[in-house]
Design goal:
Helices cover 55% and strands 8% of the residues of chain A. Chain A is built from 24 helices and eight strands. In chain A, the strands form two sheets. Chain A has a five-stranded parallel beta sheet with strand order 5-6-7-4-8, with helices on both faces. In chain A, strands 1-2-3 form a three-stranded mixed beta sheet. Chain B has three domains: 113 residues, DNA Polymerase III, Chain A, domain 2; 120 residues, DNA Polymerase III, subunit A, domain 2 (DNA Polymerase III, Chain A, domain 2); 111 residues, DNA Polymerase III, subunit A, domain 2 (DNA Polymerase III, Chain A, domain 2, Roll), CATH 3.10.150.10. The chains are: A alpha/beta (514), B alpha+beta (365).
Chain lengths: 514, 365
């Protein structure tokens, strides 16, 4: 582009052919818009280049480019589509010669500034409209690492994911302009990955030319290691640092990997400087990722951090109805209600339950009864329905284990033993209940920073010491198995129906299990 | 710092400056109004770093000093205060106590040292004009400013001063409004700048019915001094496109119509505007104008008004909002619609140096 004369066609399609196509299109436009309109607006336009992604037209002045784009884009698009089958976006460039001439010939009143010609030509290289065929889109998406089935139109937003959903749409519409970075965190199977992919697909659909990369942090790490081994860091960096949209899943994987973090830090900065969008997903808030450098934590917290919660009853029902319709299953709403009442963990478990019920339905002669449904999904619901454990119960169990008084856990005493018990209690409350950081903090009469620190500390110690880990596991098993007469706060508040299968599966662990 | 001030004076001044404060700002200090008290009275300033407004008001200052207080909160408190005299005292920690009759408020502020210093004005071109002139010209053009942020040069009013003329233009690619006023500028003071939308809006709040306006223009900033207020704004960088290329030449037909009659007729008919095309039809024939809307799923509307027109029948479709915008902002009783044919841009004119180009929409039949 820089070396060629602005009006030179790209070498792959000869100028004569481009001119011939433009003549044909002009003919169409004349017929559609009328001679006077065509002459008024399109007279000095030229077709400069053509590729599957974009059509570049040269306008005789910026104002013509703007005016034509605002008023005639649909006519232009349909005419190109008619002759080319499909048409990418239409982009306008402004011819330097014409623009300068019109400036000089104008009333001499234009704000005249010394802008280099190359820059001026790019005054308004703006996307007019983009249509990209589904086939092309799939091709581009797969190359970017996107999974075909994760789109916005099959994501079911609910009260648990409203904010994440809205933020994803905003980021796909205006990448780099709204939330930088966008950071999702949630337990597994609640839709983080789905949203990441959906942002990728939507961005591709709107801007087929943009460079989109979806990777897991692990994949990023492997690429990095590969690059080091092959002594090919330059192409690695080029690939990631020149992306328009970088989607990274499972960023918690960066934890404890210093070299990788350093590399990622520079990638992040580079993209942020260029106002390119970064979207991250993790199974915990940035501040809780183990051994993540502070400078990365603070960068991850720059933009918008959104937690996706577990879906409520209505959302679970909406998700399953949607799946049923997508998969064309013959399952009544009543049966779906039975499933969602019993399976309340992540979406994958819900889908599994639905598939089982569908299988039984197709195999049995008579319609499946609600009792049968309960039976068929029994083990899934048992596994998913972690006993709702209460804060007080956790404190008490931990205190029992350490043989200290419960009041001491709440107190200010900071001997090693008490501090350890307190941290484990905080960690367990954080992982076994749905309470937010702030709620946990207030339950212990501490601030939320203390809770973050405690959770991090316990995780690290679990990793470092097998005996410590087994202590934590032991307490956790005791809690999950139940055996305490204390009511959980959730049950008291009546948020969930009483669960007939309380603690049925002794090995069940919370969905936030680390 | 301690002062006593009249409630209405304070309220008016706060109203004029508080709109600059952005509702969602990253810097808390930008939500605050800078209050500086000297022997002569108060000076109130707000800024969003792009636009800064400063207003002087008389007050009985007991002790000079400065602080910053949350602008919107202060304005809403002052609005509700029961008496006409307000006493305000600010301590060293920037906590302000506001007393008015039986009411007492304590508002926590931030030190004035944190308030951003407005950049030094470089070498500037300075001139003075009648403020009514700019007020009317802005009012007649600013509604056509583009809101499309990807075309940032169009996100403001292009203001050209020179050749014995003050020219203001705004366009969004589908309509264009221009005022061209005879005005002699001192030699060497000619310039062309793009004033951003926010500055235009804030400026319109500061105008009064008479008085002078002192304008200073540098490379990247402009300032407007009027009625004891000062507005400083960054200018939009870039070249405004050559808008004259879209102003149609000689028209074939001219329709004369009463502005208010046309406005209210369009307003009524547009209630049934076709949501798909967002257009309504204007059929001119035999001194009559039939304005109609037809929306397949909703229904239709038609209104016929008297106009002066003796040419052949012409049917043009326009976006009703684009027709109403200039009608709302003009005050002449009569306007002219100049037409070339059914698909060329129409032009609305008045008997003053103003024109409004509007693109017709294509109609199916």
């Amino acid at each position: 582009m820089h070396s060629s004369h602005p009006l030179d066609p790209q070498p792959d399609i000869p100028a004569t052919q481009l001119n011939a196509l433009w003549t044909t299109i002009s003919h169409d436009l004349r017929a559609e818009l009328g001679h006077s309109t065509f002459d008024l607006w399109f007279e000095n336009f030229q077709l400069r280049s053509l590729s599957p992604e974009e059509v570049v037209l040269v306008a005789p002045g910026t104002i013509y480019a703007i005016w034509v784009e605002e008023n005639f884009k649909s006519s232009l698009l349909s005419s190109f589509e008619k002759h080319l089958g499909a048409c990418g976006r239409i982009r306008f460039e402004v011819s330097v010669a014409e623009e300068e001439e019109s400036l000089a010939a104008g009333e001499g009143t234009e704000a005249i500034a010394e802008v280099p010609a190359e820059e001026r030509r790019q005054v308004n290289p703006r996307v007019l409209a983009e249509t990209v065929s589904e086939r092309k889109l799939l091709e581009l998406g797969r190359a970017a690492g996107l999974v075909e089935t994760f789109r916005f139109d099959n994501f079911v937003p609910g009260e648990n994911s409203e904010l994440a959903w809205a933020a994803s749409r905003a980021v796909a519409d205006l990448p780099g302009k709204t939330y930088q970075p966008l950071f999702f965190h949630s337990a597994c199977g609640l839709g983080k990955t789905h949203l990441l992919h959906a942002i990728g697909w939507e961005s591709l659909r709107l801007r087929p030319k943009s460079k989109i990369i979806f990777v897991t942090a692990e994949h990023f790490a492997n690429d990095y290691i590969d690059a080091i081994q092959k002594n090919a860091l330059v192409p690695f960096r080029k690939r990631y640092r020149e992306a328009d949209l970088l989607l990274i899943d499972d960023v918690q994987f960066l934890g404890r990997k210093e070299g990788l973090q350093r590399e990622f830090f520079h990638t992040f900065n580079r993209l942020a400087d260029r106002q390119k969008q970064i979207v991250l997903a993790s199974d915990c808030p940035a501040s809780e990722i183990v051994e993540l450098e502070d400078r990365l934590v603070s960068r991850f917290q720059w933009g918008l951090g959104v937690e996706i919660h577990r879906p409520g009853l209505e959302t679970r029902a909406a998700i399953l109805r949607r799946k049923r319709d997508d998969w064309k299953m013959q399952i009544s709403d009543d049966l779906i209600n039975i499933i969602v009442e019993r399976v309340r963990g992540n979406v994958r478990a819900l889908e599994g339950a639905l598939i089982r019920v569908a299988m039984v339905t197709t195999m049995s002669e008579s319609p499946i009864s609600p009792e049968q449904v309960v039976e068929v999904i029994a083990d899934i619901s048992g596994g998913q329905e972690t006993r709702q454990v209460g804060v007080e119960e956790i404190k008490r169990t931990v205190a029992e284990h350490y043989d200290i008084d419960v009041q001491i856990i709440n107190g200010k005493k900071r001997t090693a033993r008490v501090a350890e018990a307190r941290q484990i209690a905080m960690y367990l409350v954080r992982t076994l209940t749905d309470l937010s950081l702030v709620e946990v903090a207030s339950a212990f009469a501490k601030d939320h920073g203390t809770v973050i620190y405690a959770v991090r500390k316990v995780k690290k110690r679990c990793d470092d010491s097998a005996s410590f880990k087994s202590t934590v596991e032991l307490i956790k098993r005791r809690l999950v198995r139940g055996g305490s007469a204390m009511e959980s706060p959730r049950a008291v508040r009546g948020q969930y129906p009483p669960n007939p299968r309380l603690g049925a599966n002794p090995l069940a662990t919370g969905p936030n299990e680390v | 710092m301690r002062f006593q001030i009249d409630k209405d004076v304070f309220q008016d001044a706060l109203n004029q400056v508080q709109h600059v404060v952005s509702t969602r700002t990253t810097l808390p200090i930008l939500s605050n109004v800078l209050i500086e008290a000297d022997e002569l009275g108060l000076q109130l300033s707000t800024t969003d770093l792009d636009v800064t407004v400063t207003k002087r008001v008389p007050a009985k200052v007991g002790e000079t000093g400065s602080t910053t207080l949350p602008a919107r909160r202060l304005a809403s408190i002052v609005r509700e205060l029961p008496t006409s005299e307000i006493d305000i005292e600010v301590n060293a920690d920037n906590a302000a106590t506001v007393r008015s009759g039986p009411s007492f408020f304590k508002i926590l502020g931030l030190p004035s040292s944190e308030f951003p210093v407005i950049g030094e004005f470089g070498e500037a071109k300075v001139f003075t004009i009648d403020q009514r002139l700019l007020r009317d010209a802005l009012r007649k053009t600013s509604y056509a400013i583009s809101t499309d942020e990807t075309r940032y040069v169009l996100n403001g009013v292009n203001c050209i001063m020179g050749e014995g003329m003050l020219t203001l233009v705004a366009t969004d690619g589908r309509r264009l409004a221009m005022v061209e006023q005879d005005l002699e500028f001192p030699a060497g003071q000619e310039s062309g700048v793009i004033i951003p939308t926010k500055a235009v809006n804030e400026l319109q709040r500061l105008f009064e019915n008479s008085g002078e306006l002192k304008v200073a223009i540098s490379d990247s900033q402009a300032s407007f001094e009027l009625n004891g207020s000062l507005l400083i704004t960054k200018l939009i960088e870039g070249n405004y496109p050559n808008f004259r290329q879209v102003i149609p030449g000689q028209a074939n037909y001219r329709v004369t119509v009463e502005r208010e009659v046309l406005h209210s007729a369009v307003k009524r008919v547009s209630l049934l505007v076709n949501e798909k095309t967002n257009s309504i039809k204007f059929a001119f024939e035999d001194n009559r104008l039939a304005i109609s809307a037809n929306s397949p799923e909703i229904g239709e509307a038609e209104e016929i008004i008297d106009v002066r027109y003796d040419g052949p029948r012409i049917v043009v479709a326009f976006n009703p909002e684009f027709v109403m915008a200039p009608l709302r902002n003009l005050d002449q009783d009569e306007i002219f619609i100049d037409l070339i044919d059914e698909s060329s841009p129409g032009v609305i004119k008045i008997d003053e140096p103003f024109l409004y180009v509007i693109m017709p929409m294509r109609v199916a039949n």
